[in-house]
Amino acid sequence: MLRPGDPAEVAEAVAFARAHPGLPLGVRSGGHGISGRSTNDGGLVIDLSRLNAMRVLDEHRRLVRIEAGARWKDVAAFLAPHGWALSSGDYGGVGVGGLATAGGVGWLVREHGLTIDHVRAVELVLADGSIVRADATEHPELFWAVRGAGANVGIVTAFEFEVDEVGDVGFAQLAFDASDTAGFLQAWGDWVVDAPRDLTSFLILGGSRPGEPPVAQVMAVIDSDDPETVLARLQPLAEAAPLVAQDVRLMSYRAVMANSDDATHAGDGEPTSRSGLIGRITPEFARDAVRFLESGATYFFQLRAIGGAVHDVRADATAFAHRDAEFSVVAFGASRLRTSARWDELIAPHTDGAYLSFDTEQGPAQLAAAFPTATLERLRALKAEVDPGNLFRDNANIAPA
Ligand SMILES: Cc1cc2nc3c(=O)[nH]c(=O)nc-3n(C[C@H](O)[C@H](O)[C@H](O)COP(=O)(O)OP(=O)(O)OC[C@H]3O[C@@H](n4cnc5c(N)ncnc54)[C@H](O)[C@@H]3O)c2cc1C
């Protein structure tokens, strides 16, 4: 376990890894990777948790520099006094490095896009130990790749983000009687897609207490500090099914993200997780999602809005290319074989694209789902240039061309 304290020490750690090519190599920022690749057994881990500084670079441009080992709850707390926020994920304990090199589907995604859409520059250590800065003009190809496939091209030590002005937001946690699960799923999907961009919502389905109807848990952030606006956004959904519990409050984005403790995470990942991206929720998808839930193949089935501002960015502007998705679908399971078999049969036929951060399967099929052919070829060509020996391989590995 190597814990570098600055980019030069990261470069030394990378040199040590190069000298031991047979050893697994994990790169860890927050240790929350779902695939569990940031840890390993008997190999090396380069742990960036000491690199966690944050500072404002330009107050006027809302430009901040955040090191990779910081966690998103600390970022939210750092930005809050300025009246700023950066859409990241839903969980404060996740690390900056893993999420901001992959995508970043968070509470403000429909309004402000993915986390990678706010990256203006990165500082990274390449496989040969060189320390570079990449932005739109300096190493532009690296800058493109880092925003969606960063784990394959280097170790990012710091990001420059342009953040947004965000005041108090409406945070809703609602539970619905989902006896008509398919009907509710479609109603929720239509509500999200048709809502103004200030609304982002996530939905968890499955599980019920014995003798009670299934419950759908809806979480939503509405970027408004006006109670009437918050209620108006929620009202159409409140009419879709009986509400069994509700908690709606105005709070800071910082408070929304203060949902994790300070425990360190060893990056063990989930037993098994499958993921995909879909467009609008069709009756066929809703039907098959119910069959999937009823099969018992998942203990956690979640949909997340991923539309709105994500669609504004051109598909070839970043390595995250599936810009037309409306929802991310994720299923955690206890049995890899059973969950994958049911997923492949019932959910995969509806998906178009994948977000690798939510998948424990990281083989060629997942790569092909996550990156369209042209994107993958471009990434392979870059990989051949910056990491021909495939040092950074313990992730969804893009082999050099
Ligand atoms: C509870 C939970 C909630 C989550 N919620 C969301 C969410 O709301 N939205 C979302 O988009 N994702 C979410 N995720 C997924 C999360 O974004 C990814 O798992 C991410 O990789 C975690 O980042 P980390 O730094 O904590 O992970 P780590 O385990 O430290 O790293 C994961 C992988 O990222 C790569 N990596 C890490 N640091 C660097 C670096 N500095 N440079 C280059 N590559 C690096 C490595 O390949 C590593 O294996 C969630 C995960 C969990 C466990």
UniProtKB/TrEMBL annotation:
Required co-factors: FAD
Top-rank lineage group of the source organism: Bacteria
Domain FAD-binding PCMH-type: 1-166
Keywords, sorted A to Z: FAD, Flavoprotein, Oxidoreductase
Entries under Gene3D superfamilies matching the protein: 3.30.465.10, 3.40.462.20, Uridine Diphospho-n-acetylenolpyruvylglucosamine Reductase, domain 2
Keyword Chloroplast listed: no
PANTHER family assigned: BINDING OXIDOREDUCTASE, PUTATIVE (AFU_ORTHOLOGUE AFUA_1G17690)-RELATED, FAD-BINDING PCMH-TYPE DOMAIN-CONTAINING PROTEIN
Family: Belongs to the oxygen-dependent FAD-linked oxidoreductase family.
Name of the protein in question: FAD/FMN-containing dehydrogenase
